[in-house]
Amino acid sequence: MADNIPLHPVRSIQKKNAYYHEGRHNRYQVEDESSHLDEMPLMMSEEGFENDESDYHTLPRARVIQKKRGLGWFVSGGWKLLCTSCCDWLANTCRRKKELKARTVWLGCPEKCEEKYPRNAIKNQKYNIFTFVPGVLYQQFKFFLNLYFLVVSCSQFVPALKIGYLYTYWAPLGFVLAVTMVREAVDEYRRYTRDKEMNSQMYSKLTVRGKVQMKSSDIQVGDLIIVEKNQRIPADMIFLRTSEKNGSCFIRTDQLDGETDWKLKIAVGCTQRLPALGDLFSINSYVYAQRPQQDIHSFEGTFTREDSDPPVHESLSIENTLWASTIVASGTVIGVVIYTGKETRSVLNTSNPKNKVGLLDLELNSLTKALFVALVVLSVVMVALQGFAGPWYRYLFRFILLFSYIIPISLRVNLDMGKAAYGWMIMKDENIPGTVVRTSTIPEELGRLVYLLTDKTGTLTQNEMVFKRLHLGTVSYGTDTMDEIQSHIVQSYVQVTGQPAGSSSSSTPSRKPQPPPPKVRRSVSSRIHEAVKAIALCHNVTPVYESRAGVTGETEYAEADQDFSDENRTYQASSPDEVALVQWTESVGLTLVNRDLTSMQLKTPGGQILTFYILQIFPFTSESKRMGIIVREEATGDITFYMKGADVAMSSIVQYNDWLEEECGNMAREGLRTLVVAKKALSEEQYQDFENRYNQAKLSIHDRALKVAAVVESLEREMELLCLTGVEDQLQADVRPTLELLRNAGIKIWMLTGDKLETATCIAKSSHLVSRNQDIHIFRPVSNRSEAHLELNAFRRKHDCALVISGDSLEVCLKYYEHEFVELACQCPAVVCCRCSPTQKAQIVKLLQQLTGKRTCAIGDGGNDVSMIQAADCGIGIEGKEGKQASLAADFSITQFKHIGRLLMVHGRNSYKRSAALGQFVMHRGLIISTMQAVFSSVFYFASVPLYQGFLMVGYATIYTMFPVFSLVLDQDVKPETALLYPELYKDLTKGRSLSFKTFLIWVLISIYQGGILMYGALLLFESEFVHVVAISFTALILTELLMVALTIRTWHWLMVVGEFLSLGCYVASLAFLNEYFGIGRVSFGAFLDVAFITTLTFLWKVSAITVVSCLPLYILKYLKRKFSPPSYSKLTS
Predict the structure, then answer these.
(1) 210: alpha, beta or left, given left = phi > 0 and alpha = psi -120 to 50?
(2) What percent of the chain clears pLDDT 90, i.e. is strictly above it?
(3) 211-220, 346-355, 912-921, 1052-1061 — which is least confidently predicted?
(4) Which is a GO BP term held by this UniProt record (predicted)?
(5) Residue 728: count of CB within 10 angstroms of its CB
(6) Which residue, 189, 190, 221, 219, is CA-closest to 202?
(7) What is the pTM of this model?
(8) What stretch of H or E contains 257?
(9) Residue partners of 28: CB distance under 8 A and separation at least 6
(10) Three-state secondary structure along 808-858?
(11) Three-class SS state of 864
(12) What are the backbone angles phi and psi of residue 996, rounded to the nearest 5°?
């Protein structure tokens, strides 16, 4: 059935099918799964085929591609391709990567290394001393706009083309470049200081002469480094020794892979057994390590000690490694450095930061190209009207220069200053304290986002587990009723001590090997006691005492008792869930006080110590989804098998009941992680029988794992269900309302996490990333093309359901069905990808950008999110508990997830709207003056003479109109409160209507109308005082501009008013002082301005008349538009 469901709307692919079917039967008989797969109607896109290795299409298609490369191809874009490939080749030749090789590292002897390895320095900078200037210039002149100005400015050195003064062209260009360089230099310096701070962290290095302090960046391969508790591991190391007695330690890896549970690492046996630290130098040993690679979950190597007889060889695996950027959680560790700097796993998993360019800048760039075409056409028309007389090509070039104001140089200056202003406003916003703008070039991106890719751990959740619910089948206890449990526990232990003779029967009637009589229901008190005891015993948690690290399990009880009541007891385990459970049993009175490899001790509320011997432990694995433990109580000798695990795994193991499934569902809907706890009492004979079979299975050569599992399963039958526990991973403040806000704003949210599938699904529900009434489709694990095909077909039938997929399955889907998968996933209201590696996160971001063309935003808080943050169009880092790596690499850094709502809805909206208005207004300013120049030239027999002199042109773009135009940066169309209250307003922004060819054309028409009116008006009304045309038209022009700013503004701010009057004041003052500029053409026209003329009434009324004619119709049109088709936001504000 699944085979017949097409996975794609059928595109026109007849041509392809023609040679594809005939080809398959005649030319290439390929016998593999893909050949019968292709008979299924899964319509693959062209690109899809290129991604498949086993495809027989490649041959004929390659030939087709070869044919196409002709002149047409070159003109239509081939030149770009050739240029980029040449540049890439040059760049690669210049920085040819050194081959990464396997290595032999001698302990404590960096000087014995055969090769030179990279420095152990963190480097986030984009440039160095030499590449800074060329790099910044390239980034600037890559834009058409700036390149055009460079050419125009250079043309002024040719005498025949010289128009006006050099400074009129070079001053604005120099200013733009200076501003940009200063900004980049400041950004770069900030990055440098941050890196320096990380690189100058001090570590102790072990040498023959004792400990030496050294900087993180000076560490070399082969050094022996000591890392204290809670210190960052500076480079990839092999774990040699620890202060812990058991030869192991815990490390926190959330910076590396986003997983919250601590990882247990084991020291190399040979070095851990040495009596003292200094003996590391007395032995002659080396580590052989494989070549550096990306995979953080695997490692192969060997440890060899040569001076013993015979030489000792130990194999090294991932559990002997300490990767850089992880943090030591227990004890002090000593390791030998094997990879440094660029070769560490964490750096290999981060991508190079790219220069991000906002969408608005790209749109403006395309508009300037359109303007350039208009400019050339206009110049050609002017020369044509002259009749191509004389050296016309020189005239053509002069016209191009005259009209070069169509493309305003001040556009970049204004926009860049605007961006700086938005950044300043974001940082000064009291509602989102601590926000930092690290990349000042893309604040407008915040207003255009469609996809938000978020990390889970530490971003949506606080990574703190809290015990919330205990359910016993008939009765359920929540946070508010925990004191009842406490009183039951106290009571049950008081009974035990009160009647010592019958202790075993009164506390737990069910401890006898034979099952209790079926009809008698045990009291709630004893059931609670059993449940709490099971939770207190069935785990892998070790209590640690800070003050007395040396005390072991063999202390006397009295002495132990006083130590165990110590305040500074902390628990260590590989999973925070387990710690939460043990902390909870402590809070209700049953405390885990000590644990070693063979026994565990609990303290009752009365202070009595109970000892249990650990007989067997069956650890938790992701396949079995459960863990078990067999303990023998010292006092009674009873043997009990306790087990806890996920409901899926446990429901078939426990005795029949009618409530488990329903309650698990209820707890999951509340976003709690559920664990089912069960027990089984064993007689001595049953246990001995089990132990024999278990040991036998452990020694078998073939299928060992299967046999061991089978023996354990023989115990896992008809277990007594004790209770169901619910633990909550606490969400960050206001995550639910924030996600709701973003969803209403039309932003699609994808959660990419390194965590387990169950946890990810759970958080997706509790954070309301997936709303309550939505189904969740869990994508089955797939490993090859046909499975992926069937599973995608199954997913295609689902409607409006969230998708949960694991990293491995994702890899397979992207390999064969990239387009199809992304197209399906984009239709989902929410997507959760779990078990994602850092590189996979970045890959998903890039895929969304390529295949949807929409803007993406990535938000995370750990080192494992850096690649994703750098790949996204807009990266946001959260300063978390887990260090600052993500917030340093991001474009924007915030302190809490909830701030993202205001950042996008308010600041994103304002930045985009303001920049769009500012950009178009600056273009309008240039178009008006060019229209006037065109009218002027056509009246004067198409002479290529400038209308306004150099200083007037510079003044026009700066002093006279800069303040009011720039004050558009303070404009806002909706109040922040409204924008947050109605996030739906954000949807309009993503359509990009504030700046499009339509709005641009409207501005062009306005400019042409106004420029024409101003110039013709000046010529009509002033035929008598013809020489005064410049003064009149320029005055009217300035007034028009100031009125147009007033027309564009939506919300007035006092600074805007100041700006308007300031500009007007400057202009009036300059009329008095710069009178020689107000003649036509050069001074040779002899038209000096007399102040007397300006002060006459005729001058004033005529200027006013022209200005009114040019502006009044626009005001009327604006009023009518607001009346008959108001924008969506005005309906809300009225």
Answers:
(1) left
(2) 42
(3) 346-355
(4) retrograde vesicle-mediated transport, Golgi to endoplasmic reticulum
(5) 22
(6) 219
(7) 0.74
(8) helix 254-257
(9) 56, 59
(10) HHHHHHHHHCHHHHHHHHHHCCEEEEECCCHHHHHHHHHHHHHHHCCEEEE
(11) helix
(12) -145, 175
754 labelled binding-site residue = yes
Kindly name the residue from 361, 455, 729, 971 that is annotated as catalytic.
455
β-strands 748-752, 449-454 pairing: parallel
Q: Would you say 846 is a known binding-site residue? A: no
Instruction: Please tell me whether 394 is known to bind a ligand.
Output: no
Beginning with the edge strand found earlier in the chain, give each strand of the sheet holding 327-328 in spatial order. Answer: 263-266, 248-252, 327-328
pLDDT in tens, 174-185: 887 887 888 889
Q: What is the mean pLDDT of residues 798-811?
A: 92
Per the CB < 8 A criterion, the answer to whether 667 and 674 are in contact is yes
Task: Say how far residue 31 (Cα) sits from the centre of its chain.
Answer: 43
pLDDT in tens, 984-1035: 999 999 888 889 999 999 999 999 999 999 988 888 887 666 567 777 888 8
416 is catalytic: no
Q: Exposed, middle or buried by CB within 10 Å (0-12, 13-18, 19+), for 982? A: middle
With b for 16 or more beta-carbon neighbours within 10 A and e for fewer, the 439-478 pattern comes to bbbbbbbbbbbbbbbbbbbbbbbbbebebbbbbbeeebbe
Q: Residue 865 in contact with residue 887, Cβ under 8 Å?
A: no
Residue 1072 tokens, joined: 């008095």
pLDDT band at 469 (very low <50, low <70, confident <90, very high): very high
With left for phi above 0 and alpha for psi between -120 and 50, is residue 589 left, alpha or beta? Answer: left
Taking the CA atoms of the chain, what radius of gyration do you get in angstroms?
A: 37
Q: Measuring CA to CA, which residue among 838, 672, 852, 854 is closest to residue 752?
A: 838
Does 755 count as an annotated binding residue? yes
Q: What is the pLDDT of residue 319?
A: 87
pLDDT grade, residue 417 (50/70/90)?
confident
Neighbouring residues of 229: CB distance < 8 A, sequence distance ≥ 6: 328, 329, 330, 331, 332
Q: Tell me, what's the pLDDT at 918?
A: 93
What is the amino acid identity at position 212? Answer: V
Question: Which amino acid does the sequence have at 880?
Answer: G
Task: Give the pLDDT mean for 273-291.
Answer: 90
At residue 353, does pLDDT exceed 80?
no
User: φ, ψ for residue 882 (rounded to 5)?
Assistant: -85, 25
Do 319 and 266 meet the contact criterion of CB atoms below 8 Å apart?
A: yes
- Check if the beta carbon of residue 208 is closer than 8 Å to that of residue 239: no
Q: Is 864 among the annotated ligand-binding positions?
A: yes
SS (H, E, C) 14-47: HHHHHHHHHHHHHCCCCCCHHHHHCCCCCCCCHH
What are residue 594's DSSP bridge partners?
A: 601
